[in-house]
């Protein structure tokens, strides 16, 4: 079965067409600047990447252009829509309503819409993509795969905040966590690599990209994760602050005359390593270059990032009463050996020793700890699109 995987943002749409039998990516691409002027980047397997400017007033036109590209007589990879057996949609927030992926129905869409307040930048866009696909591909089965679903196994002691219970009771204010599709995919792959049943592992997944989160996976279930009600909590990230003293908000608001919207913009767009580096960059390659040039703020940003990751790893080792595997994934986790070594430098108490030659590899699936390390440290490239395709096929079949 060919599965079209759709990841809709407010003004963008990423897609992949995957053959679920061979798990080969037949084609992939990106629609950008939807609602402005629009552009489509498309690449068939083994072919050249092609970029074209196209007017995309709405996501419906974007989906139509994706379909046109996939079925193009010259560069397409299928002859007609009949060869696409299902569509898998990434949905960011499922609240407490979804502990697993779900076939898309009208009732399911209403439940997702009820979670819009919890993810106002993401869920509405996800729904727009779903509706656009339904309009253009009527009769094709569709599945929603939730970022939050994997973390619904967290116990109350992990997801409740120290706030009046009424806020949970009335508004469901609690920790939800994100990157669940990635954490699930990577932790399952770790179990396969080390040859231990998934239900008998203690694994800490470090998903380190511009958005970053850590997850404690105990016996195949998420028991804690660093992101919270929103993707703002947890680690210092590219432009997001991560954990801070809540009283800082009142202090800064008074000093800078900021309202709530101004504070949220500062926390989400102007903080993280970008803010710490005094505006050098949110890209770690730029930060490393600046740090090598002796720029102190960039050096501090890198130190803070690595330190925060190591602290979370330590706390999750405590939460699981031990750890068997620590795995790095996503852009920084997969490619930045120096940051991996910096983080693991804090973890000597776990009996970790790093193989420098293995750790020098980039973007590869590899064990980077030495054979005599008490805890295995691995790098496993994430593949959220493949995970979504697998979930989609399982439900459709």
UniProtKB/TrEMBL annotation:
Name of protein: Acetate kinase
Residues noted as binding substrate in the record, renumbered to the chain: 90
Enzyme class at the top of the EC tree: transferase
GN (gene name): ackA
Reaction equation(s) it catalyzes: acetate + ATP = acetyl phosphate + ADP
UniProt keyword annotation of Kinase present: yes
Cofactor: Mg(2+); Mn(2+)
Binding-site residues for ATP, renumbered to this chain: 14, 207-211, 283-285, 331-335
Native organism taxonomy: Bacteria, Bacillati, Bacillota, Clostridia, Lachnospirales
E.C. number(s) listed in UniProt: 2.7.2.1
């Amino acid at each position: 079965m060919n599965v079209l995987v759709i990841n809709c943002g407010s003004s963008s749409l990423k897609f992949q067409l995957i053959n679920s039998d061979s798990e080969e990516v037949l084609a992939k691409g990106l629609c950008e600047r939807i609602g402005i002027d629009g552009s489509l980047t498309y690449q068939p397997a083994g072919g050249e990447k092609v970029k074209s400017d196209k007017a995309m007033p709405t996501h419906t036109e974007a989906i139509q252009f994706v379909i046109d590209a996939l079925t193009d007589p010259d560069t397409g990879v299928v002859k007609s829509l009949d060869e696409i057996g299902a569509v898998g949609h990434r949905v960011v927030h499922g609240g407490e309503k979804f502990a697993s992926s779900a076939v898309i129905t009208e009732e399911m869409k209403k439940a997702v819409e009820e979670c819009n307040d919890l993810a106002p930048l993401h869920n509405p866009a996800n729904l727009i993509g779903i509706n656009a696909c339904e309009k253009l591909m009527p009769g094709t089965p569709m599945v929603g795969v939730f970022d939050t679903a994997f973390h619904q196994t967290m116990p109350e002691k992990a997801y409740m905040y120290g706030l009046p219970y009424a806020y949970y009771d009335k508004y469901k204010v609690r920790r939800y966590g994100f990157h669940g599709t990635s954490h699930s995919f990577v932790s399952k792959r770790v179990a396969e690599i080390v040859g231990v049943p998934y239900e008998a592992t203690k694994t800490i997944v470090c998903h380190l990209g511009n958005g970053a989160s850590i997850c404690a996976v105990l016996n195949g279930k998420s028991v804690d994760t660093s992101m919270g009600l929103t993707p703002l909590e947890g680690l210092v990230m590219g432009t997001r602050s991560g954990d801070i003293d809540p009283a800082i908000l009142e202090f800064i608001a008074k000093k800078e005359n900021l309202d709530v919207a101004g504070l949220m913009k500062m926390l989400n767009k102007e903080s993280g390593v970008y803010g710490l580096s005094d505006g050098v960059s949110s890209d770690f390659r730029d930060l490393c270059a600046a740090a090598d040039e002796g720029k102190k703020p960039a050096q501090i940003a890198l130190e803070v990032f690595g330190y925060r990751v190591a602290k979370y790893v330590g706390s999750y080792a405590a939460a699981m009463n031990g750890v068997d595997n620590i795995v790095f994934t996503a852009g920084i986790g997969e490619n930045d050996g120096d940051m991996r070594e910096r983080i693991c430098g804090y973890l000597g108490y776990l009996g970790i020793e790093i193989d420098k030659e293995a750790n020098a590899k980039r973007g590869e699936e590899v064990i980077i700890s030495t054979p005599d390390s008490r805890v295995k440290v691995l790098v496993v490239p994430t593949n959220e699109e493949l995970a979504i395709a697998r979930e989609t096929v399982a439900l459709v079949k």
